[in-house]
Recover the amino acids of this structure.
């Protein structure tokens, strides 16, 4: 007897390797998973702790209260919101519902790896459009659109590059694709960005049936460990997603924590200011050391070695690790000379700068 998966192409699916959490030091500074630098709001921790009295209860299956709060917060009709066990789960659900064998799922060269994995897991073909300067290129995406393109996944700002594109470019893409193609705008990092040309797409999605916006509580709301994501789209699309949704994907403590997180605006404001401040400082610092940097709008910086740096990114990564700092290598994205470093606390950032300076001075 030999055990065979029904999906013949399963061995072609890349394995997603999450950010590491161990270094060579007893006290690790984890800068590998774009978690919130300030941790989790004390009010959210309180709400989470309070839920211990109800742990024997099943959670509300469709997250009514959470969707009501999301509806108020983002000015959305709650019937068009679906909550999930992290937005990763929604990425897979969308691929499963809208693509299968013979279909194409389009994403950008350095787009979030979960898109390609979800496409292949659904049995569809993953099609990739080249980027320019680590930035999504709408013309290149449009040249890859065919009659078989069922879904386009786009993160804006993107992980792992941090780059973003103006909303008029997203509109141009939407205008030039079929109304039957689902355009997924992953706005996981939208709360960190202030650019006047930027939009998370929620208002636009109210007017178009083929757009889904993804959001997460893992970033600015500081709840990566709790797993809550959500999506907004037309009633038709959201209803399809409900058909294959787990019955209880968001645990009771997770729902309580997410509601409390929405209600602590001073925490999210502080997280945003802290992040923007350190992205700027780190990019200036790494530019000064001779790295190439991107105009990151996420809670991380992405750096690439150049002729000026005179060492490999692997050497730099290992040196950081020896000194207790874990960053994220990007070989899985074929960004072989790049490293992604998440924003941490003030003291973690100061340590990073000191260690990086020491490494580079030894190489000069
Ligand atoms: C662009 C993007 N989308 C989605 C996710 C997944 O987030 P979640 O923790 O909600 O599954 C991430 C996580 O890093 C991300 O960077």
């Amino acid at each position: 007897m030999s055990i065979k998966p029904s999906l013949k192409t399963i061995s072609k699916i890349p394995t997603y390797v999450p950010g590491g959490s161990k270094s060579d030091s007893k006290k690790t500074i984890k800068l590998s998973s774009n978690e919130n630098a300030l941790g989790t709001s004390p009010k959210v921790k309180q709400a989470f702790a309070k839920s211990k009295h109800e742990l024997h209860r099943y959670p509300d299956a469709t997250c009514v209260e959470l969707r009501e709060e999301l509806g108020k917060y983002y000015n959305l009709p709650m019937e068009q919101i679906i909550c999930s066990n992290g937005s990763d789960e929604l990425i897979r659900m969308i691929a499963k519902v809208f693509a299968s064998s013979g279909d194409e799922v389009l994403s950008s060269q350095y787009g979030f790896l979960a898109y390609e994995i979800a496409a292949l897991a659904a049995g569809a073909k993953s099609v990739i459009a080249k980027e320019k300067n680590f930035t999504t290129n709408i013309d290149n995406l449009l040249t890859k659109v065919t009659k078989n393109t069922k879904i386009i996944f786009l993160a804006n700002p993107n992980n792992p590059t941090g780059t973003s594109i103006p909303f008029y470019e997203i509109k141009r893409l939407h205008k030039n694709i079929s109304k039957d193609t689902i355009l997924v705008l992953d706005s996981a990092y939208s709360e960190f960005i202030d650019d006047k040309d930027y939009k998370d797409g929620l208002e636009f999605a109210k007017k178009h049936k083929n757009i889904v916006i993804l959001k997460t509580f893992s970033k600015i709301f500081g709840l990566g460990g709790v797993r809550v994501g959500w999506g907004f789209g037309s009633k038709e699309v959201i209803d399809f997603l409900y058909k294959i949704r787990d019955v209880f994907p968001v645990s009771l403590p997770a729902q309580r924590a997410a509601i409390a997180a929405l209600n602590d605006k001073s925490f999210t404001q502080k997280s945003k200011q802290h992040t923007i401040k350190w992205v700027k400082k780190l990019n200036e610092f790494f530019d000064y050391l001779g790295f190439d940097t991107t105009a990151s709008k996420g809670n991380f910086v992405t750096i690439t070695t150049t002729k000026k740096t005179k060492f490999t990114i692997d050497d730099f990564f290992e040196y950081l690790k020896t000194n207790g700092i874990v960053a994220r290598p990007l070989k899985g994205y074929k960004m072989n000379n790049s490293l992604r470093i998440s924003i941490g606390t003030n003291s973690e950032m100061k340590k990073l700068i000191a260690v990086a300076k020491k490494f580079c001075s030894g190489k000069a």
User: Anything to note?
Assistant: The longest strand covers residues 149-155.
